[in-house]
Structures are given as structure tokens and as C-alpha cells.
Amino acid sequence: xxxxxxxxxxxxxxxxxxxxxxxxxxxxxxxxxxxxxxxxxxxxxxxxxxxxxxxxxxxxxxxxxxxxxxxxxxxxxxxxxxxxxxxxxxxxxxxxxxxxxxxxxxxxxxxxxxxxxxxxxxxxxxxxxxxxxxxxxxxxxxxxxxxxxxxxxxxxxxxxxxxxxxxxxxxxxxxxxxxxxxxxxxxxxxxxxxxxxxxxxxxxxxxxxxxxxxxxxxxxxxxxxxxxxxxxxxxxxxxxxxxxxxxxxxxxxxxxxxxxxxxxxxxxxxxxxxxxxxxxx
Length: 281
Known about the structure:
The chain is α/β, with parallel strands linked by helices. It folds into 2 domains: 2-111; 115-268, 5'-nuclease (Rossmann fold). Helix content is 53%, strand content 11%. It is built from 11 helices and 8 strands. The strands form 2 sheets. It has a 6-stranded mixed β-sheet with strand order 5-6-4-3-7-8. A two-stranded antiparallel ribbon has the order 1-2. Helix 1 (9-32) packs antiparallel against helix 5 (80-113) and helix 8 (158-167) crosses helix 9. The longest helix is centred in the middle third of the chain and has 34 residues, at 80-113. It is elongated and about 80 Å long. The two termini are 28 Å apart.
């Protein structure tokens, strides 16, 4: 699930509860109204659509205005029994869909509220630096930011895993590194449910940020990584999310979104070489 950047978790939470209540009331009225069962339905949909504006993926507002909705809107009133059956059938589809959205929103709320300084991984950091469990994150964060962090969240966007998967089928050193990174993530996250954090060091967890369901359409992996960080920044500004990258181009793009970046000392690099320009992915 994804929210539109201008909306908060609280607005989405309240809006979803209101929309569910509105549609459940519309269903109760439609059951008893034998003359015009669609009136309560159309009234309810119009109000529920406004309440669901915070949701981007899935677009819950658009889902309410389904093909059936438009057919009901244009239907004649001379067959109230048939119309009531269609209205109730549609509401019995939409209400469970919103109940499922409630479960997804609860997952997003838990993701947003997890403790720790969030560091969103760029692909190059998994390819060219030590595995996450071999890094002293508290020391690294203190050195890079001048601030202490008692707990640290390492977040690997799903798009990073997809990029590693594509890279491992190539040739040469990058393919070897990507293979090693994929194997590490597979082992580290093996015991956790999808999207749930796993402790890898004292005070340090790692987790994936799952992509919304549906066909993959990623064109710019860097942008998707930045959107992962930007999303958490908007949902929980107090968390002080950072983008973990050693790519200067990525750092420049992050700065345009007012997202701080964090990199690691060269002694954490697998090859101990200094990156003098934008690092290879």
C-alpha cells in the first residue's frame, strides 16, 4: 500500500474507517428500501470516494467507481428488485475490499512506526561494501552524522532486490558481487515473514519494503529507492530517514528531495578502494 505524499497516516486511517461506515450504512438502507435502493448506494459512494483520497496504491477511490457503479448510475428505476440485487452485490464486493485495505493500512502503520534510525539501501552499497551484519552501524552512523543512534533500521527496497537479481546474470565481478548480496539477503531474511524486520546485530535490524501488488513497471531504480525513503520521511518525519549510498549521482538526486544521505568509510568496502566518481552499480 502507498499513500499520496500530501496525506498523513492519521488522515488515511480516519478516512478508511469513515468510508467503511458509510458503505455499511448504505447496504443496510438498500436492504430495506424497496422503491429506490440505489439512492443510498450512490449517496454513499460519493461520500466514500472523498474519504479515500489519501490512497495512491491501490487507488481505493477509483475502485469504488467501478463499471458496475456506472451501470447502476445509468440504470432505470422501473425494476427495483433487480436494481437492489445489483446494488447489494456490488456493496458486498466493495466492503470486503475496504476491509482488506484496512489490514494493509495496519501493516503500513506498523512499518512506519518501527523504532530506529531508518537507512534505505542503495544497490551499490550491497554490491561493494561488507554485508550488513559485518558493519558496526552505531559507530558508522556516529562517524557520518555526529549523532548517536541506539537503534538502526536497514531497509532494502524491493526494487533493489530486483536490480541485484538482474545483475547476477551478467558477467564478471559485478555479477559475482550481486550473487553474494542476494545470497546474504536470502539467508538473513529467511526466517521472517515478508516485510518484517530481522535482527542482525545488537540494536540493528534489516527488512524489505515490499512493492505494491501488480505488474512490475520500474524504469528508474534510483528513483524508486528515493521514493521509498521519501515515503517514510513524509509518514514519519521524526524518524530522520537517510539514503544509504556511495553514488554521487544518487546523492545529488536525494538532495533535491531534501533527503539526507549516509555513506560508509572505505574500510567497510570489500575491495578497500576509494570511489573517485559515481560508483558502478
